[in-house]
Amino acid sequence: MTDPFVVVGGDAAGLSAASKLKRDDPDREVIVFEKGRWVSYAHCGTPYFVKGDIEHLSDLLALSPEEIEERGIDLRREHEVVAVSPDERTVTVRTADGDAVEQAYGDLLVATGAHAATSPIEGAALDGVFTLHGLDSAAAIRAFLDAPDAASVEAVGGGEYVDRETVARYGAMDPPETVALVGGGYVGIEMAEAFAAHDLDVHLFQRSAHVLQPFGEAVAERVEEHLREQGVTLHLDTEVDRLAGDDGRVTGVSFGDGPLDVDMVLVGIGIRPNTDLLAGTGVELGDSGAIATDEYGRTNVEGVYAAGDVAEDRHVVTGGPAWVPLGLTANRAGRAIGGTVAGDPTPVGDVAGTAVLKAFDLECGRTGVVDHEEAREAGFDPVSETITAGSRSGYYPGAAETTVTLTADRDSGKLLGGTIVGSDRAAIRIDTVATALAGELTVSEVERLDLAYAPPFSPVWDPVLTAAKVLGGKL
Amino acid sequence: MTDPFVVVGGDAAGLSAASKLKRDDPDREVIVFEKGRWVSYAHCGTPYFVKGDIEHLSDLLALSPEEIEERGIDLRREHEVVAVSPDERTVTVRTADGDAVEQAYGDLLVATGAHAATSPIEGAALDGVFTLHGLDSAAAIRAFLDAPDAASVEAVGGGEYVDRETVARYGAMDPPETVALVGGGYVGIEMAEAFAAHDLDVHLFQRSAHVLQPFGEAVAERVEEHLREQGVTLHLDTEVDRLAGDDGRVTGVSFGDGPLDVDMVLVGIGIRPNTDLLAGTGVELGDSGAIATDEYGRTNVEGVYAAGDVAEDRHVVTGGPAWVPLGLTANRAGRAIGGTVAGDPTPVGDVAGTAVLKAFDLECGRTGVVDHEEAREAGFDPVSETITAGSRSGYYPGAAETTVTLTADRDSGKLLGGTIVGSDRAAIRIDTVATALAGELTVSEVERLDLAYAPPFSPVWDPVLTAAKVLGGKL
């Protein structure tokens, strides 16, 4: 009998793979080891839980442990895989009570995810300093924000899984009044909205000149203007060196222009793949630090797959490896690997780096290669154009200014990527650009796309078409 | 010196062509003959003018005659082209005062548009019976709906262009209480919303079993349910034979189950291309009855182009001719022909038949080949799947059921078309499918598209991806 399909990590990639394999090959044994208590949760929903749009932490669970077991998956929570021996095809697992056991595998999927970075910021261990990675940190933040009489383990709704001690500790503290967000990426922007909803005085620190670096300047400038309109204080071009504390609790932020008194800090300066487990196994990492994989999600080691936030994928535009730790990528790669392990080789699919983001009332989107330096490194001669057009016919109520940037290769005319920002149905329009990248369309082909037009939804020339027309004129 | 570029018809296609030519070749003379008084108006906005979302008729004008003249275009309104002589390269024009003059052309664009059909319904000439084609009919309808003291030529805002006599006549009548919409296509559905906003008792008659035939059954069924919720009485599978009248004014609708008393009727049973002008010229029509054109919008006759609602285009999926009289197609083809005439041969672009529609609170979209009979005629072996999925993450407020149907060719796996319906950002999602058609993607390529995901805008698997997954499982 074949040894089990062993999955390390019980979230999007791991459980998608396990579920798909059990569907296609019900007789194969599947074991999922998860070091924590939470499984199958929607990380992307945590800012909206903190904000209060989502009431209970458990609303963010896609599948309960019971539902996972019903699929025939042998789920073992609080089981940490601490070593992999590819030669013996075994993993070493530490259980909740500290025992170490060996488990043989036929195929292994490493889906260990990523963790939030805090280095090199000093003082990140102080009380009142958070990252946003995992439901426990979201629960602690919300308990901290709620008034002590309203905050409770029951109110956050995490049931048996939540880190009750931390929630109770933050729930007992006086709610913060001033928060510093360190980092103007996804987490910083989404959490600015969440904290503003709790009437905090919100300060956002960004080391470089603009927030949302992967979205380019045109998006960043509109978002920055909008953040200021919403009362967020922006500290651009400002590096935070150190978080100051008193009696173990954060009291301030140190940066060039001097300190700012705060009683809460959220550090969102990026995430790093959880690859420690693979040290010495011979499994190769890519330049990004994440695990290198082929088009089927296979690593260089026989029988070992990797997917999700810990793995690289192939970029649809450059053809080279790319590390894009996002939700769809994880789900899709996991599902494909489940199919492949079941005997139906299924490509995990290329990534375009498509991402969308809500910034208060603005919707932002990006896909493909937008940055000119990145484009040149991939061998292209990039040229971009930015336009602003209405989201609907000008005479129809609700039309809003939508800014689109498209980037193309001058020689081939091939579309390389794009960004969008606006308040009316803007984000979802990036899918047109993402699909055009998958179809390897040129700018003039994009210009001639037969896109939707009706006054309530779009002008005759969709903003993406207008951008293609203008960019086409430059090629 | 080259003879002028002569354009017959002063709306989307004609003026796009004229404007593009003057931009690219300012020295070339361009004459646009328009038989009516209105030019460059947004036909698609008329239901929302009738509804009251748009206040003035003149809000629907994209360009004023003055702005057109400023572009260097010689615009002649109330000039009807009554004959074309391709051998002499001349057109015969009847002016407002009845004179007939000859005009030589170097290149000719026929952009005469289409007219609303009423045949074979008897009684369509009665007072109180309308079609919705052109601003004058929209003005008359709104004047009729408004109370006599509120209705006036000034209130509809058409200025000097509007048919003042008709507006004044309808404005003086008592407003209607019951309206019959004959035909459940775009016009019927959009106008049901417009009439309901004026508190009319709205009856919609559809000859076949479902409204919105080009959108397929899955869309039709949700729209029908929603129309009923909004108080519209549907008469499906019901053919209207005759409109009854008294003293020249409509009083009822005759159909199988007996008559219905109404005081207003809107006939929206389709449009026909305005090709009479070309009888005997040797310009060939296609099977649809519209003018056959090549990829540059050229007819079979040297120097004669056709674009807009009067012309066929090439279908992106079938590769064969298609008559898709819609706004973007007209603008795009006109612009391309302007470029071609200016010396830069520019393809008009294929059509996918992409269309979107607002039906009260529902958004509908369609693109490509959806109908199985049509697919088989084009040589495909069609297979479809319909799914319903959330428009956002399930835990995020505002998620709405979105129904997607995708159709593919069984042999090649190639995507052929799709439809969508839902109340939250549904319509614009059809652009993903339209772009996939242009890229000639297979269903499994669509399944692996890297589309946007963030809880406020989309679930992890966009409804289009979910539909592709399910359809892929059937191939």
TrEMBL record, chains A, B:
Keywords: FAD, Flavoprotein, Oxidoreductase, Redox-active center. Signal peptide: none annotated. It comes from the Archaea. Residues 359-459 form the Pyridine nucleotide-disulphide oxidoreductase dimerisation domain. It comes from Halogranum gelatinilyticum. Belongs to the class-III pyridine nucleotide-disulfide oxidoreductase family. Its cofactor is FAD. This is NADPH-dependent 2,4-dienoyl-CoA reductase, sulfur reductase. GO terms for molecular function: oxidoreductase activity. Pfam families: Pyr_redox_2, Pyr_redox_dim. Residues 5-313 form the FAD/NAD(P)-binding domain.
